[in-house]
Design goal:
The chain is mostly helical. It is built from 10 helices and 2 strands, in the order ααααααβααααβ. The chain is globular and about 55 Å long.
Length: 269
């Protein structure tokens, strides 16, 4: 009788509930320390950026892993997620490993896919991946055209070594951690609570904040305005592809295609 007159309603947890806070504090301190040492010229800029980027991106992947684990949840998996991204970022600065080190994170993540059923590590329809590649290429090509005409930027033919190093960074760290956290984890939680428009808007705003504070992005006004435009379109489209396919793979494909084009820009002297 009580079940009919006064049914039990499970408590609704916060959107950000269950974050690995101790691990995030450690990674935040690591990022801040690297930045402080670089500012004091006690650490060269390149390794400082690698440490900071590895810690920040590791925090995104660790949180995504924490939120999407199957039960019983592993306490070591989030730390491993942060470690593989961090090792890849730092290892890529060493001549012996170079860009190959960035493969550590995606390989580890794929081996853990059965333990992360909520992360969207599934094989999507081929058509959705083709659509992602077309979208990223279209946005990237439009960026190259408009930037080269109006922003004092030019388009260069990158050397294979230059292009491979950036491709490894985007596929193995930058885009991978962004899609895993913002689409596979955060958007997945948000779209269970709110309509698609509201959930994708929230995720896009937070995703823009992630890129706009990135020290690897030029912070001139025109570049930041362009970043807001293109990354907004990319983020909303990636949310839609995840919503339709349940996989982060099309978003990763779109993001990598877009950033390949972006890496071809250079500042005119």
């Amino acid at each position: 009788m009580y079940a009919i007159t006064d049914p039990w309603i499970p408590p609704r947890r916060s959107l950000l509930a269950g974050m690995p806070l101790p691990l995030l504090v450690v990674l935040g301190l690591l990022t801040a320390t690297a930045g402080a040492l670089a500012a004091a010229e006690l650490l060269p800029l390149t390794p400082a950026r690698a440490v900071g980027a590895g810690a920040a991106q590791g925090a995104l992947l660790a949180t995504a892993v924490t939120w999407t684990q199957s039960r019983p949840r592993s306490r070591t998996a989030p730390a491993m997620a942060a470690a593989v991204v961090f090792v890849g970022a730092v290892g890529a600065t060493l001549p012996a490993f170079a860009a190959i080190a960035y493969l550590v994170a995606p390989v580890w993540l794929w081996t853990q896919r059965c333990k992360l059923p909520g992360l969207g590590l599934t094989r999507p329809p081929i058509g959705m991946c083709v659509a992602g590649a077309a979208l990223g290429t279209l946005l990237g090509a439009h960026l190259l055209l408009t930037a080269s005409l109006t922003l004092g930027y030019g388009v260069r033919v990158a050397t294979p070594a230059h292009l491979v190093s950036w491709l490894a960074y985007d596929a193995g760290a930058n885009v991978l951690t962004t899609e895993a956290f913002f689409r596979g984890a955060l958007f997945d939680r948000a779209q269970r609570r709110w309509p698609f428009a509201m959930a994708s808007t929230l995720v896009t705003v937070v995703c823009l904040a992630r890129y706009l504070v990135d020290p690897l992005l030029p912070h001139s006004l025109e570049v930041m305005a362009g970043a807001v435009f293109y990354l907004t379109l990319l983020s909303v489209a990636n949310c839609w592809m995840y919503w339709r396919s349940g996989s982060i793979v099309p978003g990763v494909v779109a993001g990598v295609a877009f950033f390949i084009c972006y890496r071809l820009l250079y500042v005119l002297s």
